[in-house]
Design brief:
Distance between the termini: 27 Å
CATH architecture of the largest domain: 2-Layer Sandwich
CATH topology of the largest domain: BirA Bifunctional Protein, domain 2
Helix content: 25-40%
Structural class: alpha+beta
Largest sheet: 7 strands, mixed
Length: 461
Amino acid sequence: MANVDLDKIISLCKRRGFLFQGSEQYGGLQGTWDYGPMGVELKNNVKRAWWRRMVYERDDMEGLDCAIMMNRLVLKYSGHEDTFSDPLVDCRKCKKRFRADHVDPNEKCQEGGVHDFTEPRPFNLMFKTTVGPIADDNNIAYLRPETAQGIFINFKNVLDSTNRKLPFGIAQIGKAYRNEITPKNFIFRVREFEQMEIEYFVKPGADDQAHEKWVSDRFNWYTSLGIKPANLKLYPQKKEELAHYAKATTDILYRFFPDREDETRQFDEVEGVANRTDFDLTCHSKGGKLVLKGGVEIPNEHAINKLNYFDHIDNKHIVPYVIEPSAGVDRTTLAFLMDSYFEEQVKDETRVVLRLHPELSPIKVAVLPLKKNHDGIVNIAKEIKGTLQKSCGWRSVYDDTAGIGKLYRRQDEIGTPFCITVDFTTLEDKTVTVRDRDTMTQERVAIADLPTYLSKRLGNC
């Protein structure tokens, strides 16, 4: 089980340069966060690990990177203009606004008693802007609220340029924007975030099996990178909970809130895997239509291409079904931070360690000189750092800004798997001390053997 709450993670992130409040210099901007020197490395490693597993290690996947600003018609025919909203309520006493389905009716109001809420009303979450020098209704555009729609409208482009056969997928990592009513819980719910999404196209009839396979694959991805299985849950959504376009959705939940007494409330979504059927390709296709909840139909009068697939086996055009694994980069990063956090007492001191999987660690190796003003020791240490960084490709650092004990603790807190100490013995026999982050064991290794020694332990970094 997770043994850390958000407050400890927030403190560590600020102290060690993982995350800072967005626009902090001017009092901050709610719902935005800036990734610091360690945070950007961790976040990039999360994305890199996902891309390698989802794209490079599969034979049925292509990549894409779509524009953030989208033609208004994309989000009209996807249904976002009409349906992408959350229920908003106001407190008549304190004048604050809340998301109705997230508010506790017994919550105390700062003006006394409990809140006096208005009736819920829909609040569209998309950020609206205008394109060009004239700000009028003809030039309205939106910042995309998800990366999925860019994949759907490029289905024909990818199909024609790659000659892919079903089943195949299109993967994308990118920014998305939602004007959340109440962003909260650190980077769990924010207004600017990043998604890792796949749209996996299959023949109708093969969708149920593909959906089950993707749920299993995605769950296993988290555990393969160190997430404890006990901190994950699968939640198949009930029929009444499904989005109107979904045949089935299974959420992968992580224990983001271990301090809550009710265990069921400790878990929340880190990823969703949905069977979207042919909804999206149909609504964006020439001659297609958008079907809203309740059966309202909006014929597509603007699309220029049919988004279908010619099935050579059955000799006919079909509209593929779509399985969508959709994960938030920020929530995933937060889950890895929480799950790797570990405290122990060492010599009457609390040792804080991020036991990150080496593939995710911001820094793979730290090279530390035992004496920072000894030219021989310093030169060897910097040479080792350069070799490991340039020849082996591992993110490596040289650090001489404190005593060796404090340097070890600093690297422990940011999750560095190995520290290499260059000392006076190194000058005699060309060996160094290699310290393991998790066990604190130390081993003498010849400088010439370091690449082989570390590669066996760092794995696929």
